[in-house]
Amino acid sequence: MKYFVISVLCIAVALSCQQKHKTEQRDIKTTALAGAVFGTRYSVIYNSEINYAAQFDSLFHVVNTTLSTYSPDSDISKLNRNEQVSANRHFKTVFQASKRIHAETKGIFDPTIGDVVNAWDFGAEHHKFLTDSTTIDSLMQFVGFDKVKLAGTTVVKPLHTYLEFNAIAKGYGVDVISDFLVSKGITNYLVEIGGELRVKGQNMQKQKPWRVGLDEPRFDGEQSVYKVIHLKDEAMATSGTYRKFKVDAKGNRYAHIINTATGYPAKTSILSVSVIAKNCMLADGYATAFQAMGILKLKPFLKQHPELKVFIIYENEMHTLKTLAFNGFPIE
Known about the structure:
Elements: H1 2-27, E1 31-37, E2 40-46, H2 53-67, H3 75-80, H4 89-104, H5 114-119, H6 133-140, E3 149-151, E4 154-156, H7 166-183, E5 189-193, E6 196-200, E7 210-215, E8 225-231, E9 234-240, E10 245-247, E11 253-258, E12 265-267, E13 270-277, H8 280-293, H9 295-303, E14 309-315, E15 321-326
Antiparallel strand pairs: 1-2, 2-5, 3-4, 5-6, 6-9, 7-8, 9-13, 10-11, 11-12, 13-14, 14-15
Helix pairs in contact: 2-7, 4-8, 7-8
């Protein structure tokens, strides 16, 4: 009987502790913030009652004044005007990550292709190709990220080379906010900027892993969810061609992502590439590169990079949506 009483007491204490733990979890304050940034929207959810909106705005401002080609007073805009610029830690981080992706993809990812991309937006008619090959050829002679160097805090580049990190900067912005939250002891968060995101821990409000949606490729401009997946302690970025594309006279659709070897948009069947990586900057950069790389080159590349989880949505010859998942991408 003595042992029975002890057993009952132990169970009662255990149940009491479990109930207290559940009550404490329910009492954890969660803050949700949202706003405009980088020409899109951001949202952040984290387990703290402290409002960090002012700090977020300050961090966004620093990233913007460093990397935004849309701001004439940013460091990168000054650099493109060949003005003297001292590279800060944000510039160095993005520059070095871009060098890594550029080398690994053998130049398919190239931050010096921006002027060529801008040229393809010229023309009075919607979806009309720029047919002046002379213009493209003249711009392509200044393309090549291997020509750009970072010596300490000094960026060395050819006089007419145009540099931009728009294909990776948004993901970096996600990482900046995520790292700030970690520095404040936040163990559960979701940070999202324009569809690129990074999570840690779980959704404390629901006591479940973070659930995020993959967009369904749609050409009508509407938005709907194709798949829902769970993420934990990782980042994801998606690059899609179904909203920005050009169509030739034969009805062939070409991606807005330019072939860095030719300067021309490449015909592609890939509609969407989602990449899960350890941080959002890398996920963002690789997602852009994989769009341009194409499925045939991507398969052997991902065998060499098992740390990258990738999900592709593409069209077959019958215009039916097909998918491919690599390296354990969590499709349910």
